[in-house]
Design a protein that fits this description.
The complex is a heterodimer of chains A (264) and B (869). Chain A has 264 residues and is α+β, with helices and mostly antiparallel strands. Chain A has helices spanning 68-75, 79-85, 92-95, 100-106, 112-119, 138-141, 163-166, 219-227, 242-259, and strands at residues 8-10, 22-25, 41-44, 53-56, 59-63, 123-127, 133-137, 142-144, 147-148, 155-162, 170-176, 183-191, 197-202, 209-213. Helix content of chain A is 26%, strand content 27%. Chain B contains 24 helices and 28 strands. In chain B, helix 17 runs parallel beside helix 23 (823-835), helix 18 runs antiparallel to helix 19 and helix 22 (746-765) packs across helix 23. The chains are: A alpha+beta (264), B alpha+beta (869).
Chain lengths: 264, 869
């Protein structure tokens, strides 16, 4: 929709240009999707020319401005990447414009790039107004529904996925009220070295919860670990009752545990 | 830097915060539609550098230096792009508002994506078709026929506007350039109930571009109803253009008229309003208890219900609830008004009732009727929501105050908190039957929440309590019904007009009763339904002009019997469905499977009169001009009018040139609502054509006053599967049987039924407008309010009964609202058969189904379980 209060677009924008009333602009699909009368200037990051995906020996760097279409084109050979892209409520047309960074910064429980990044031990590179960079794990970047650790003027530059995680065996489960609908629970299991398991719970909860098991848990151990997630962490909105989300979380977690091999 | 649009360079620079959709429309590409404005519906799909995007969430500045292709530029030259041709040949649209976006999306699909349409088309919402027609269009199935002279009625003629729809050149309400138009925006109430103490306009008037601010001090004192009926007295006059008292969160408080939308919005934010907050009631049960809030009631009985229940072998009683549902027509409400060269007030509106709206505007502002003209372009979906004057009054006031053209287009969010919804009902139904299958007593206790205003409230209640039970012969019936005001967004007319809500309760209860006496549900219906020659009775006074002028319910029930037991089909060969029927999907292992059915009856037209005038004039070269008042919003009436006129005059339908939905073209037309497009307006067309043929000359008129009326019948069957682990429900089979009298256009009729079933499935499985304790609507976009998508909508087998009506034109009956009505109970009955639990509140979302299946806990959990024998 038209953002009528916007009076200026800075394109390309750079760290340090931000002032109150500004918004960093990725693809724009989230920013233009709701009224935002508080925004005066758009600081366009997509024109900065950051390479979308850079594959290195230690892992993959995904620019915040990498579109979902670019992500699946370059990294779609990893099943979990495709699964997460298809977890968007939005269609492939939105993929042509929406960015990985935009999805993280919207910080919604159902944000599938948050699921992907958290499940693969991703680390966010954030750049402050003074140009200083700090690194925050994706799983800790989102702190609540629509809330994240970004400080005023700080921007998300990239997400780094370590190579060990990107190539790991994963298992994916998703629940929604509707086929192809918005995620109500999205769980990803990743097999760790020496038979361990990293289980990432997203969509069902207000922020990602990553459970780590040095060795494959049995059903009771898994259930006990899930029980540590406080009941109030389960999302209460129109996309699914919290009791049901909690039930799906337990159901899918157990399926993932079995799929990735009990104690394997 | 310029933007290249359809091969031409456009030099005008976009505004900084502008989305591409608005820029393209300003550059004249009206085929790019504003549907949701949030990236969800896909009506604005265009290609940027060859890739499809939703232009409503694409920053316009970014299109500079890029190539943009819109529907207007999709085809090479003047021909049609293959996808446009496919949509035309398959008639893959109804109102057509979503069609340009669907075509642009389809044109960009890879072969893989074409193979997975549920996923590929999840960014394209169609509210009309139920997607089967879309699937056929994508697959290149040809349905449209071009009948020879005299053979149009009964043929699958395409909509006359089809070529415009598929090329993006059909002109909807705002697809016109009105030079110098001003923009209107409203400030809406933050309180559910308050008195406006003062409005300070000073800061608002200082915003550059603001022309005027309108408040209750500028509005006439006249009370009216936003609801539009032929008989004005049908709805309580309880509404002002702008009121000193606001009665729901979201009600108009003040309007700003400015040279830009931006200025109007900014000025709204700067209005300072002092409110005296008043007590509010948002719950209808509380409203009934509080007293003084009843706006309609019915207390009546037939026979002796106590005696009836006493002789029953089985009695079942349960309370059912239905949710608020939004019409979600993809074109929002809105109007643009101006003064014509004669000084007349002209309003171009997205309305189902141009003539009644003209009357209402004239009445509210005390103007002579002939000083107001109301026009509807092609309307982008209605479903009853536009049988209402929600914008025209304020646009009229703004035009009169400023002397300039004024436009007001609802945002999608305003549709949710500032328009109307389906009436939420609470219905307690009780039925008793003997073991031989006779229904001995039936009672209804109905509570209708009309919201802050009474528009349609009493009428929806009366209608809901009539055909839903009049379809049964039962000597002992009692109805107690109330419609109450609450301080919530008003409810209004919505497909089915109360019948769907009450039918949900009645048909669910009868399903349980049939289980209790050990009888299959079809036989139980057959024993109790009205038959040809029977009177239609239900408690209360009803107009006497309604009767069974053709009867096909027996055929509908035969179809239901065949659905339950395919080998038992003994029905006479009815016209076969057009399509090949896909094989039913198997249930996944471990899922619970069940089946169920329900029936519905509907009056073909409203009580109290529904008037249509039609005029046919001879044109040169063997053509005829047909003038009708009826608006076209995908209902297909226009197609049928052309068919009727063509056959009577012995020409092919393309020789009929239609002028419509303009108060200048005929004397009167009550409007396109209450399923009257064919049976009332169509009859006026038939009479005009016959008069021209009989009398000769250059011109002839036809008139019909909508009485007497017949009834149409519908029956729906579902087989469903439910995952006990997650509550996920899948529809394995959906079968609908309809008695519409003579089938005027099988393709369109099928489309109406499929669309009605799909829309009802939305209300049954997904949709709910939520209101919090403070009266605030919390579901204000298509992300929070889930409309059925391609993936959610099953294939529905459609069967037509073979009947000919004695009243309707050429034997036709109405069939636009009624397919909706049996869907919720049929689904509920199938779900109950699958999971063993009677669910009583729609929608049945997966989380609620899962919760219903959990082991009982607590005193309310004793469920009566009556397995089928």
């Amino acid at each position: 929709m038209d953002l009528h209060t916007v009076t200026e677009v800075i394109s390309p924008a750079a760290p340090g240009q931000w002032r109150p009333g500004d918004a960093w602009l990725g693809g724009g699909t989230a920013l233009l999707g709701e009224p935002r009368p508080e925004i005066v200037r758009l600081l366009d990051l997509t024109a900065a020319g950051w390479p979308a995906v850079t594959e290195r020996a230690d892992g993959v760097e995904i620019a915040a401005t990498c579109t979902i279409a670019e992500l699946i084109e370059t990294l779609g050979r990893y099943p979990i990447v495709g699964q997460c892209c298809h977890s968007f409520l939005a269609s492939f047309k939105i993929w042509n414009v929406a960015t990985v960074g935009g999805n993280l910064c919207a910080s919604l429980p159902a944000g599938p790039m948050i699921s992907l990044g958290a499940a693969l031990d991703g680390v966010c590179a954030l750049i402050g107004p003074d140009g200083a960079e700090r690194r925050v794990p994706v799983a800790e970047f989102v702190t609540g529904e629509g809330v994240n650790v970004l400080r005023p003027g700080e921007l998300l530059r990239a997400i780094h996925l370590p190579s060990a995680a990107v190539g790991a065996l994963t298992s994916y489960r998703r629940g929604s009220l509707f086929r192809n609908g918005r995620s109500a629970a999205l769980l990803i299991g990743r097999r760790l070295d020496r038979g361990g398991l990293a289980l990432t719970v997203t969509a069902a909860t207000r922020r990602p919860h990553v459970l780590r098991f040095d060795r494959g848990p049995d059903a009771n151990e898994l259930a006990a670990a899930l029980a540590e997630i406080p009941a109030e962490q389960y999302v209460t909105d129109v996309h699914g009752h919290p009791d049901w989300r909690r039930h799906l979380t337990g159901l899918y977690a157990e399926q993932i545990r079995v799929e990735l091999g009990e104690g394997a | 830097m310029s933007v290249e649009i359809n091969g031409k360079s456009h030099e005008r620079e976009p505004r900084p915060g502008q989305c591409l959709r608005t820029y393209l429309r300003e550059e004249g590409c009206f085929g790019v539609k504003k549907g949701c404005d949030s990236g969800d519906c896909g009506a604005c799909t265009v290609h940027v550098d060859g890739r499809p995007v939703h232009s409503c969430v694409y920053p316009a500045f970014r299109a500079q230096g890029r190539r943009v292709t819109t529907i207007e530029g999709l085809a090479d030259g003047d021909g049609l792009h293959p996808v446009q041709r496919s949509f035309l040949e398959a008639q893959g649209f109804q109102c057509g508002f979503c069609t340009a976006g669907l075509i642009m999306t389809t044109a960009a699909l890879t072969d893989d994506q074409r193979g997975d349409l549920p996923r590929s088309l999840k960014g394209n919402l169609c509210r009309c078709t139920g997607y089967r027609a879309v699937a056929d269009a994508v697959a290149g199935v040809r349905h449209r026929t071009l009948p020879e002279a005299g053979a149009a009625v009964g043929a699958s003629l395409g909509a006359p506007a089809g070529p415009q729809v598929v090329t993006g050149t059909a002109r909807y309400t705002f697809d016109v350039d009105v030079p110098g138009v001003l923009h209107l925006k409203v400030l809406r109430s933050p309180h559910a109930h308050a008195r406006i103490v003062a409005i300070d306009r000073t800061a608002a008037m200082r915003v550059e571009g603001v022309i005027t601010v309108l408040t209750h001090e500028d509005a006439p004192d006249t009370l009216f109803s936003t609801a539009q009926h032929e008989n004005v007295a049908e709805d309580p006059a309880d509404t002002r253009v702008l009121d000193e008292i606001v009665r729901f969160k979201g009600q108009r408080v003040a309007a700003v008229v400015a040279t830009t939308e931006a200025a109007a919005e900014e000025a709204c934010r700067r209005l300072l309003v002092e409110y005296e907050v008043l007590p509010a009631i948002v719950d209808p049960v509380e409203a009934l208890r509080a007293g003084g809030r009843v706006v309609g009631e019915l207390h009546a009985a037939l026979g002796d219900v106590d005696a009836g229940f006493a002789e029953a072998d089985a009695v079942y009683e349960e309370t059912f609830r239905t949710a608020r549902v939004q019409h979600a027509s993809l074109e929002t409400h809105g109007a643009v008004g101006w003064r014509d060269e004669d000084g007349r007030l002209v309003i171009r509106s997205s309305t189902q009732t141009p003539f009644l709206t003209r009357r209402a505007v004239a009445s509210v502002f005390d103007l002579p009727l002939d000083s107001v003209r109301v026009i509807a372009g092609r309307v982008g979906g209605g479903f009853g929501g536009k049988q209402e004057m929600l914008v025209e009054d304020l646009v009229a006031l703004a035009v009169m105050r400023t002397g300039r053209p004024v436009k007001w287009e609802y945002t999608r969010a305003e549709q949710f908190y500032g328009a109307t919804t389906r009436h939420p009902f609470i219905v307690t139904a009780k039925a008793g039957a003997r073991r031989d299958g006779t229904i001995t007593a039936l009672t209804l206790n109905v509570l209708v929440d009309t919201g802050a205003y009474g528009n349609h409230g009493p009428s929806v209640m009366f209608h809901g309590c009539h055909e839903s039970i009049a379809v049964y012969k039962c000597a002992n019936m009692r109805t107690d019904a109330h419609t109450v005001y609450t301080h919530t967004v008003p409810a209004g007319a919505f497909r089915g007009y109360g019948l769907g809500q009450v039918t949900f309760a009645v048909e669910s209860v009868l399903d349980e009763v049939s289980r209790m006496i050990g009888m299959d549900p079809v036989t139980f219906r057959e024993l109790n339904v009205v038959r040809a020659g029977d009177e239609l009775t239900s408690p209360g006074d009803h107009t006497e002009d309604l009767g069974i002028a053709s009867y096909g319910l027996d055929q509908c029930l035969n179809r239901m019997r065949a659905a339950f037991a395919p080998s038992a089909l003994s029905a006479p060969a009815a016209p076969a469905p057009v399509p090949a029927v896909p094989a039913p999907a198997p249930a996944p292992p471990g899922w619970l499977v069940g089946e169920g059915m329900a029936i519905a009856m509907i009056a073909a037209g409203p009580p109290g009169g529904h008037i249509a005038d039609a005029t046919i004039r001879v044109l040169p070269e063997g053509r005829y001009e047909l003038s009708v008042g009826t608006a076209e919003f995908g209902n297909g009436s226009t197609t049928v009018h052309a068919q009727i006129a063509a056959d009577e005059l012995g020409v092919t339908p393309d020789m009929i040139v239609i002028r419509q939905s303009d108060t200048d073209v005929v004397r009167h037309d009550t409007g396109a609502f209450a399923s009257t497009g064919v049976v009332v307006a169509g009859k006026a067309v038939l009479r005009a054509a016959r008069a021209l043929k009989a009398n000769g000359g250059e011109i002839a008129h036809g008139h019909f006053d909508g009485t007497p009326r017949s009834v149409a019948f519908n029956a729906q069957y579902f087989q469903v599967a439910v995952d006990p682990d997650t509550g996920e429900l899948r529809i394995l089979r959906s079968i609908h049987s309809a008695d519409a009298g003579t089938v005027m256009n099988p393709l369109q009729l099928r489309g109406q039924i499929e669309g009605g079933v799909a829309q009802a499935l939305g209300a049954t499985l997904a949709e709910h407008v939520d209101i919090d304790d403070s009266g605030e609507v919390t579901t204000t976009s298509f992300r929070q309010y889930h409309l059925p998508t391609f993936a959610d909508t099953p294939f529905t087998e459609v069967h037509f009964a073979d009947t000919t009506d004695e009243i309707g034109p050429l034997g036709a009956k109405s069939m636009s609202e009624s397919p909706f009505n049996p869907v919720s109970p049929a689904l509920a009955n199938a779900l109950r058969d699958a999971i063993g639990v009677r669910m009583t509140s729609i929608p049945f979302t997966a989380d609620r189904i899962w919760q219903a299946m959990q082991p009982p806990a607590g005193p309310l959990a004793h469920r009566r379980h009556h397995p089928r024998p």
